[in-house]
Structure formats: structure tokens, C-alpha cells
Design brief:
The complex is a heterodimer of chains A (390) and B (281).
Chain A: H1 3-41, H2 45-79, H3 81-115, H4 122-151, E1 156-159, E2 162-165, H5 168-172, H6 178-205, H7 211-237, H8 239-246, H9 248-252, H10 256-282, H11 287-291, H12 293-300, H13 304-318, E3 323-325, E4 329-330, H14 331-334, H15 340-371, H16 386-389
Antiparallel strand pairs in A: 1-2, 3-4
Helix pairs in contact in A: 1-2, 1-4, 1-6, 1-13, 1-15, 2-3, 2-15, 3-4, 4-6, 6-7, 6-12, 7-10, 10-13
Chain B: H1 2-33, H2 37-68, H3 70-79, H4 81-99, H5 106-128, H6 132-154, H7 157-183, H8 190-212, H9 216-236, H10 249-279
Helix pairs in contact in B: 1-2, 1-5, 1-6, 1-9, 2-3, 2-10, 4-5, 5-6, 6-7, 6-9, 7-8, 8-9
Classes of the chains: A mainly alpha (390), B mainly alpha (281).
């Protein structure tokens, strides 16, 4: 494989890993914010315990996800310096806004939320988790805006051999932005819902003593999935007319990889829609728990929305080739002047550390999830140092 | 308008070196300060509250670099490809090792931190045109000093004493490095760099004096400033940051709106985090 192929494979691999973290972060933070809102309003301590338990899983995923985000950000300059040199004035703006408005603030709010536990006024603490959630979705907002520019460059003019920004509002109203952004938002809510459902189902399989705790968590998960999936599918299909109009080649020349991605995504989307709506009536009198076999399906289903998301991502990105910025800059021209060997080394290094990171994330989350809400810290396997604080 | 963004980039980068600098420094000296598992946990607990907040300064700085200095970003990163790749791999290992801490895997934590600090040293050396080996060896010393001073401030009892002793041992090598870096400075305009060097020597003297008189917080501020100073050196080298590498004014105007709101908010909230964890001690 030549340097260009390696650079593309590297970006695809690291983005896919990054995506796994991001989706769960967005989905879980919403669920945690809902739980904490109920905890603040209600006298029942179960809500506060739920916030703490699911909040820990969320924090671990976030802390490890940051590292993937840093590498992703550097990768633009490392391997695709042609993009920043030529289109950085326009493409860089939403990216910079993401790091400042969203990520910088999000981490700061989250740090205060973690260490403000039991120390801050409960309403201030509640406001903080909603601010974390809001800034998390703001991240998706800016990133999808930057991506939409690659699909359909808007708001720029070519001057002195580089793209200059002339109209920022054209970036915001880019037709390839809005629907895709909402699609991603509901995808992450689906991930959160399926994750909540799956982990709760696991505890029912093991005949947990925390029946009330996991009943509520499972319900929240199922309802979240049932509410998110129709919107998810709606905004998914809503993108076809846009793609047809602005990137007709994408649909005409569907290859094996992106075609498969699209197919998987659509099928998984419909399966989750169907299953979640069938499950909603079964929540009545805990039938779903008494039947038992749905519980196993729920655990098995945890990876499904992740697979779907990566499939959709492949369709969106592979389908644009050979353009990096549609009709303006080819992928070939955007690549840095870096030798094949350097590219190979960085590919192996990043893929290696990301794989370690993902495995570490799942090991930690599985440990915490298995441990359940009643945890005694002392002699158990170690987890993130952020966790004992919570 | 351009000046605002040069200032902001410098501010964010200095913030990263001064704050994340002690994360890495603590990582490097972890096994020197903490002689057994219990004390090592205590050492790491001292850093944990700030870990998330510190790391994002880098993300913000690189974001600003991309948005406001697009032609510098691509040039700088792709020309130092291998150094950045190794540095980032070290950064990821360090992050994982801190989160997934288990005693047998400390080599990943200490090693990751070392790779990061040596990486920044090598990068600074290359950008400033100084000898790479000197910077690659010197920056780890500065960051380790900063980490040890941080621990001297945040810990108590025997651990604090050990942190103070290690910090004290690192002051002299730091001084040697600063002097050597100024003497061997390559393309950097010498007067500006000389001033930076004199300030650094003064601050290192401050670290030594305040550690002796047990004013740990002041010592921490001094070592933080020392870690941030090389960044100012880079900005002082006029060949690195110029208007031609920057984005056009319409782009900067959009970004300014965001920065005016966000940066003060971040400062207030991070300050609140510091305040709160002080109250908890």
C-alpha cells in the first residue's frame, strides 16, 4: 500500500476508534443528566445512586476518550497538511470552535462536576451536568459542520491560491450539515439507550439483588432507545435527497465497503427500532425480566449501534473519494509530504495505542459495570482514579 | 486582530506547559517519591483532580493553531512527523496507565510521561534551532522539577519531605540547562532569548529559596512559569509565528466571538476546581 493508502487507512482506523468513545460519551451523559435531574427532584435515593453508578462509567469512557481526541486533532496537521494549508481558513474555523467552545469548556465543567460531588449545592451540581451534556453535543455540532464543509464546500472563495472565508453563515446553513448532525445526535442517544439496557439486563441475568435499581435503568434504556430510533431513522433517510442533489456520485458509485456499511447501518437501525418498541409493552410488570430470554438479546445487542455508526461513517466518507473537499481539493493533494515509511510507522503506532486504549476502556467499564452500584473500594481490581472520588 | 490570536495561542500553550507539565513531571518522579504502593497511590491522588482540566489546554491550543494559524499548523506538524507520532503515542500510554493504574504496569506510566517530556524537548530544540540532545535532556528535568514542587505543595508528612528533597536536587541541573540553552541558542534573536534566560534563572532561584522557606505555593508558581518560558522563546523567534501563516480577518473575527466568551469561563471554572480541592485537603 502506498503512502496515500496508509494515510487514509490510518485516518479511517483512528476515527472509528474515536467514534466508539464519542458515541458512548454523548449517549451516557444524556442519560446521567436525566437521572440526576430526577435525583434532584425526588426524595428517593435510588436516583442518586443511579447517577453515581452510570456517571462512573461515563467518566471512565470520557477520560480515555480524550486521548483519542488529541491524536485525531494532531492527525490533520501530521498527515493532511495540504488540507490546513489550502482550506484551513474555512475548515479550521468550526474545528477551532469545537475545541474552544465545546471541548475546553466540557472538560472544565466535567472536572468541577466530578470533584463537586457532595460539595456543591445540588442545583449548581445539576446545572453542571447539563452544561457538560450541552457542550458535548456542541462538540458534535461543530465537528459535523466541519465535515459538512468537506461534503459540500460553502461560504468560501479562492484567493491567493487558498480558500478564504467570506460567509460563516453559509457554513451553518449548509444542507449537508443539519440533518446529518441530528442523525448523529440520535445515533448517540441510541447507543446510550442500548448500553443502559444491555448492562441492566446483564445484572438481571445474574439475578441481582438491586432489582429496583436495574429495573429503572433498564426502563430508561428501553424508552430512550424507543424514542431515539424513529428520529434516527427519519434523519437518516432525510439525507438521501441531499446526497442525491449535492453528491450524486456517492450513490451512483457505491463500492463494496461503503455499500456494506450503508446496508448494515440501515438494517441495524430498523432492528433496534422494532425490538425497542416490542420491548416497551413488556416493561409492564417486568415481563421482559421474567421471560429471561430477551435479557440475553439485550446483552448481545450492545455492540450493534456501534457497528451501525461505523458503517454509516464509511458510507459518508468513502463515498466522497477521490475528493477530500468535494470538487475543490483531492485527497491526494491534501496529503503531507511524508514518506511511506513514516506513514507506516505512525499507522502502526496509532493503531496500536488506540487498540490498547479501546481495550483498556472496555476492561475498565466492564469491571465497573459488573461490580454494580454497591461497591466497596478497598481490595477490588483497580479502576480509574477518577472513580473513587465519585 | 492578529495580535490577539498570537497572544491567545501563546497563552494556551503556556497554560498547557505549566499545567500538564506537572502531570508529566509527577509521572516521571512517581517511583522516586512514592517508595511503596500506598504512597504511590497518594502521589497520583494529588494529581487526579486536575488531570482532565490540564490535558485540554493542549487540545485548545492545537485547535487555535488549526483555526487561526492554518499554514503554521500543517507545516509544523508534518515537518516534525516522527517526533509528534512518538510523543502522542507516549501521551496515550501515559493517559491509559494513569486511568488503568496497576502496580505492575508503572513502566508504562513513567515511560509514557518520559516520552512526552523528551518529545517536547526535542521539538523545542528543533524549532528554536538549539542542540536537540540538550533540549531533549533538559525539558524532562524542568518538568520533573515542576512535578516534584507540585507534590511538595500538595502532599504532607514524609512524602512531602521526599518531594522537597528531589526538587532541591533538580534545581541545579535545571539551571545548567537554562544557561546552556541560552548559550547555544541558534536562530533565535539573542537579546530576547537572553532576557527569557535571565528570568528563568531568577525563577529557579525563587523555587530554591521558597522551598527552603516552605512557601510551597510560591515555589509551584515559579516552577510553572519556568516550564512555560520556552514557549515564549518560540514566540520570540519571529521567524516562527508570522501574519502570513495566519487565517484571514473574517475567520479570526468569528473565532474571537467564541474566545471572548469561553476563555474567561474556563479560567473561572478551573479556578473553582482548584479552590474546591484545596478546601478538601
Amino acid at each position: 500500500m502506498d503512502a496515500l493508502g496508509l494515510a487514509r487507512l490510518q485516518f479511517a482506523t483512528t476515527t472509528s476508534f474515536h467514534f466508539l468513545f464519542v458515541l458512548l460519551t454523548l449517549g451516557l451523559v444524556t442519560a446521567v443528566a436525566v437521572m440526576q435531574t430526577r435525583a434532584t427532584l425526588s426524595a428517593d435515593p435510588v436516583h442518586a445512586r443511579m447517577t453515581r453508578f452510570w456517571g462512573r462509567l461515563y467518566v471512565v469512557n470520557y477520560a480515555l476518550g480524550i486521548a483519542t481526541g488529541i491524536v485525531m486533532e494532531f492527525q490533520f496537521g501530521l498527515n493532511w497538511s495540504g488540507l490546513s494549508t489550502f482550506a484551513g481558513d474555512v475548515f479550521g474555523a468550526p474545528l477551532a470552535l469545537e475545541t474552544l467552545v465545546a471541548f475546553f469548556l466540557e472538560s472544565t465543567f466535567l472536572g468541577l462536576w466530578i470533584f463537586g460531588w457532595d460539595r456543591l449545592d445540588k442545583w449548581v451540581h445539576l446545572a453542571l451536568i447539563w452544561l457538560v451534556a450541552l457542550t458535548a453535543f456542541a462538540s458534535a455540532f461543530w465537528i459535523m459542520m466541519a465535515n459538512a464543509f468537506l461534503q459540500n464546500p460553502a461560504g468560501h472563495e479562492l484567493r491567493d491560491g487558498v480558500l478564504r472565508m467570506v460567509d460563516f453563515s453559509a457554513l451553518v446553513t449548509n444542507p449537508t450539515f443539519g440533518t446529518a448532525f441530528l442523525h448523529v445526535c440520535f445515533a448517540s442517544l441510541t447507543v446510550g439507550g442500548v448500553f443502559l439496557t444491555g448492562v441492566s439486563a446483564y445484572h438481571f441475568i445474574r439475578r441481582t439483588a438491586e432489582v429496583d435499581f436495574f429495573r429503572r435503568s433498564l426502563r430508561l434504556g428501553v424508552v430512550l432507545t424507543a424514542l431515539a430510533t424513529p428520529m434516527l431513522i427519519g434523519f437518516g433517510f432525510g439525507q438521501f435527497p441531499v446526497v442525491e442533489r449535492y453528491q450524486p456520485d456517492k450513490l451512483d458509485t457505491v463500492g463494496a465497503l461503503d455499500g456494506m456499511g450503508l446496508g448494515f447501518m440501515i438494517q441495524i437501525g430498523f432492528v433496534l427500532l422494532l425490538v425497542s418498541w416490542v420491548t416497551v409493552p413488556l416493561l409492564f410488570r417486568d415481563w421482559v425480566v421474567r421471560l429471561r430470554f430477551p435479557l440475553y438479546l439485550m446483552v448481545v445487542g450492545i455492540p450493534l449501534p456501534f457497528v451501525a455508526a461505523i458503517g454509516g461513517w464509511l458510507f459518508r466518507e468513502v463515498g466522497r473519494q477521490p475528493w477530500l473537499v468535494q470538487g475543490v481539493l483531492t485527497t491526494q493533494d491534501a496529503m503531507s509530504h511524508v514518506s511511506r515509511d513514516q506513514m507506516l510507522v505512525s499507522f502502526i503506532a496509532f493503531t496500536g495505542v488506540f487498540a490498547v486504549l479501546a481495550v483498556a476502556d472496555w476492561v475498565l467499564i466492564a469491571r465497573l459495570a459488573r461490580r454494580g452500584p454497591a461497591s466497596s473500594e478497598s481490595d477490588e481490581a483497580p479502576v480509574s482514579p477518577l472513580v473513587p472520588v465519585l | 486582530m492578529e495580535g490577539v490570536w498570537v497572544f491567545l495561542l501563546a497563552f494556551l500553550t503556556c497554560g498547557y506547559f505549566a499545567l500538564a507539565g506537572f502531570d508529566y513531571g509527577v509521572g516521571v518522579v512517581l517511583r522516586l517519591v512514592g517508595r511503596d504502593e500506598r504512597s504511590r497511590r497518594e502521589v497520583l491522588r494529588a494529581v487526579t483532580p486536575f488531570f482532565l482540566g490540564n490535558e485540554v489546554w493542549l487540545v485548545a491550543a492545537v485547535g487555535v493553531l488549526f483555526g487561526a494559524f492554518p499554514r503554521l499548523e500543517g507545516e509544523l506538524l508534518s515537518s516534525q512527523h516522527t517526533v509528534f507520532v512518538v510523543l502522542l503515542a507516549g501521551l496515550v500510554c501515559f493517559t491509559v496507565a494513569v486511568q488503568l493504574r496497576s502496580p505492575g504496569w508503572d513502566f508504562l506510566l513513567v515511560g509514557g510521561a518520559l516520552v512526552v517530556v523528551v518529545g517536547w524537548g526535542v521539538l523545542l530544540g528543533r524549532v528554536l534551532g538549539g542542540p536537540v540532545w540538550l533540549w531533549g535532556a533538559g525539558m524532562p528535568v524542568l518538568f520533573s522539577l515542576h512535578g516534584a514542587v507540585f507534590l511538595a505543595w500538595r502532599l504532607s508528612g514524609g512524602l512531602r519531605e521526599r518531594a522537597v528533597r528531589i526538587a532541591g536536587l533538580l534545581v541545579l541541573p535545571s539551571l545548567v540547562f537554562v544557561v546552556a540553552a541560552v548559550v547555544t541558542a541558534g536562530s533565535v534573536p539573542v537579546p530576547a532569548f537572553g532576557v527569557t534566560g535571565v528570568v528563568a534563572v531568577g525563577l529557579l532561584g525563587g523555587v530554591w529559596a521558597t522551598l527552603r522557606s516552605r512557601r510551597h505555593l510560591v515555589a509551584f508558581c515559579c516552577s510553572a512559569a519556568v516550564c512555560a518560558l520556552p514557549v515564549l522563546g518560540v514566540f520570540g523567534a519571529r521567524s516562527v509565528v508570522t501574519v502570513s501563516v495566519m487565517a484571514d480577518v473574517p475567520t479570526l473575527r468569528v473565532l474571537t466571538w467564541a474566545a471572548v466568551v469561553v476563555v474567561p469561563l474556563v479560567l473561572v471554572f478551573q479556578w473553582a476546581t482548584w479552590r474546591m480541592s484545596r478546601a478538601a485537603r
